[in-house]
Amino acid sequence: MTDQVTQYKERIARLEGLLEINRSLVAMLDLRPLLYCIVSAARELTQTEASSILLVDRNSGQLHFEAATNLQGVRSIVVPMEGSVAGQVVQSGKSVVVSDVRNDSRTAYRQTDEQSGFVTRSILAVPLIAREKVIGVLEAMNKKEGNEFTDEDLELLTVLGDQAAVAVQNALLFQQSDLIAEMVHEMRTPLAAVVAYAELMQRPSATLEQNRQFADIILHEAERLNDMARSFLDLARLESGRAHMAQDPIDMSTVVRMVVSVVLPQADARQIGVSVELADNLLSVVGDAQRLHQAILNLLSNAVKYCRPGDNITVAASCDGSVLSVSVIDTGPGISEDALPRIFERFYRVPSAEDQAVGTGLGLTITRQIIEAHGGHITVSSEVGQGTTFTVTLPVSA
Question: What domains, with CATH codes, occur in the chain?
């Protein structure tokens, strides 16, 4: 009798916890924190060692890890539809319980284990269904103390998954509408310039030389609009998880050298020194070389943009255990304490003393998305008059 009362109280407590979690999810519209809230709740409710959430890419139909607990460096992994538990859940729209993966023919989980260092023993996976369509999978792995998954675990994770699917769909829609609103606002300025100078060219009093100047300005603003449109699309794909990420071994020393070779002519023209410091023990990372090239290029180009003639930039790469670090260190004017917290915000541009800094204001936002999609992190430290350091950390391949 005592055991029954205890079990009843525990069940009530878990249901109350689930209710509180559902209330929190409904109020969250920021996708990244929402996803981590979901996986944390799944792990807690099922009393498991780890939990993850995978979303279906709307363009490619592939499954991507979007958030996980206790699984490092998995966001860059593409999970196949065939031969995976998550793939079966998406295709069938039904939950799957694997009590012992050693007795299961689906072996796709091994790639995740190799990448993260986690050892999967059992899996409980439920579909995330929004508007009658499976948009992803919520998984819980390894019951604590070697226990097996129960019907109650399945029930709780299913209820959480139902609420999570609605919350994720709402966050994706909000993210999309928010980006569109910001895009329209940012495009007004160059578009207004194009219209204004086109009207000036139509004036009978405009000379040939003036029209040439107006045409140059129109071309410059049109190129700005093109850059903005390309950046908007890039960011939208990255934020929604629709950007394709290759899964190849990458030699980061090669990436760094290629990036430096691209930027060096611009730096030389501005009399800015660029040096490279690569450790001998650099290990490979797994991911998309083109995307990582883009991320490091954004950081180095930014440094050149803000540095003054005579300043120096160092690109350094090293390994510490299972982490590879790439730092872009400059001796430029630095960033104020007020500006630092906003450095990765969309459209934010650090004020320049010479007022020469141009761009879409999306470069650092895109860079952070790329690094996080590879299971890494990016940090910045700076002091006015002392320069700035951006550091990217990435998990090395197992």
Answer: 2-174 (3.30.450.40), 245-398 (3.30.565.10)
